[in-house]
Amino acid sequence: MKSSQALIPTQKEAPNDAQIISHQLMIRAGLISKLASGLYSYLPMGLKILQKIEKIIREEMNNSNAQEVLMPITQPAKLWKESGRWDEYGAELLRFNDRHNREFCLGPTHEEVITNLASQYINSYKQLPMNFYQIQTKFRDEVRPRFGVMRSREFIMKDAYSFHLDKDSMRVEFEKMHATYCRIFERLGLNYRPVLADSGSIGGESSIEFHVLAESGEDDICFSDESDYAVNIEKVAFSKQVKTNDASASEEKVLTKNITSIEDVAQFLKVEQKQCVKILIIKTTNGYKALALRGDHALNEIKTQNLFGNFEFASDKEIKSLDLKKGFIGVKDLSINLIVDYSAEVMVDFICGANHWDHHLTGVNWDGIKFEAVDLRNAIEGDASPDGKGKLVIKRGIEVGHIFQLGDKYSKAMNANVIGESGKAMMMIMGCYGIGVTRVVAAIIEQNYDNRGIIFPVNVAPFSVVIVPINYNKSTRVKGLADVLYQQCLDSDIEVLLDDRKERAGIMFADSDLLGIPHRIVLSDTHADNGNVEYKARNNPEKLEIKFDNALAFIQSKLI
RNA sequence: CGGAGUGUAGCGCAGUUUGGUAGCGUACCUGGUUUGGGACCAGGUGGUCGAAGGUUCGAAUCCCUCCACUCCGACCA
After folding, report:
1. Please, which of A165, A303, A349, A430 could form a disulfide with A406 given CB 3.0 to 4.6 Å?
2. Above 0.95 for ipTM, yes or no?
3. Which fold has domain A465-559?
4. Residue A313: per-residue pLDDT
5. CB A375, CB A346: distance < 8 Å
6. Which chain B nucleotides are covered by protein, judged by CB under 7 A?
């Protein structure tokens, strides 16, 4: 392709609503254009990249015997009511009515449709197992879209669904997809990790997320520094602990006027935050509960939800109505259920609110207090790894893939069964496997950039090579050489961009660097005097002079 | 959902306090000089100042309503 005929709207400055590097660079390199919050158009270069990623995913999925299908984005409510998710899914599911006032939604995922499809066409155990996938647009009405295509409302996903006669078969496919995903992310040049995760609203028993390690990630991933333990912070489970110290202090009420936060209390009393206990009040469907955590720990909302169902933090008003003093709530004499985290349970001589304005208690112990102990908190850096080996290290990750063992959640609800060997109907067992294709684009950029722009791996770059002829429009010699090399590349099926614009060298260099094209050939009169061209790789500052006659072979050698 | 902030040319911004002809940089167009890392000179195109309403002789500016977008928080008791 020639630059003069391509729409590559590069910009010097990023719009100021672009916060993270991948968003800024995708806008500046002219890959995407924002239409509205969480909605982006893919411009020609952006689409090229997307298609490269899709190609790799297709090849690997096909190699793993998955069959590609394409399902509608518009889905009838009927199916969602059958699965029970019409009521479960919440506001992220965009619902609407058609002209006949029938209810529909835009598909945030496709379990319902594929299960319906499978129950229609898979009738015998002899057809199993089967795995279907599609690469298609999803819509999720996110509370807060952000970071460009990283968390957008409309996005492209590769989703796959497998059907099995039994759990063993499902587990085999799960492992196969695990390996397939590893091959995909490796080919995409990503530094990634598979981690154990919570299965969320999709449901099912076991799930593994694939995270690309990057500072801008929205998830915290916990690793052991001594074993291969790797788990999403949501899912790090702690077990009951044994007390290591005995109580020794006696209880004392101290004046802490207007000192309410754990941070301030600890500072005021000159103790560490982990010597304090903090109380959170939540509202559940079974009434209010007080949750006690060690001062330096944070509540894990997923664990809380798993224990108590949907919940909200109590508002100031509600706290007041319970006769509690916000900022000074303690563990003693509570009128509501007290739930204590395992690591708070083993604390001795601790500090907490006095349930009395402007006072805290020191030297408090659990003796005589009625409570229930559970695992409630998030892991923090330095915690002992739950597998007993080493300590936890926490890193940020971008979730680019997630694989689930669904079991019979959908097949049961939607009555998807086959006739088994014995002649009796058997419920199908399912697995499902997703990759956020558009998010992968952003993740690749988050891991591959410098101060000049993107550094695409060859596998996903919009072009493999850019030819930068200096004075293309003045020097007939340079133009002649550039045109010859360009044609040679085209004839050899090399994806090449010829910058034939009437621009100065600096602009052409800046644009090709910004766009991240891996290989660059510069043609100029000075080089031509020696029969040479200049070669430079995007990821290497070194410039090489090579003979023009060898240029094509040289490029080809770089692309293997 | 709460809290904060921002809407002025494709992008980045000033002007709003104190009402009085719509500005700057960049990008874009024309001509010229330049030509290996985002050149220079001259001229030019482009904006119903987010939308509607109100106050006023006069509104980007003051008042009201709405809309959009961004950030922060969903960590605190």
Report:
1. A430
2. no
3. Rossmann fold (3.40.50)
4. 78
5. no
6. 1, 10-13, 25-27, 34-39, 68-77
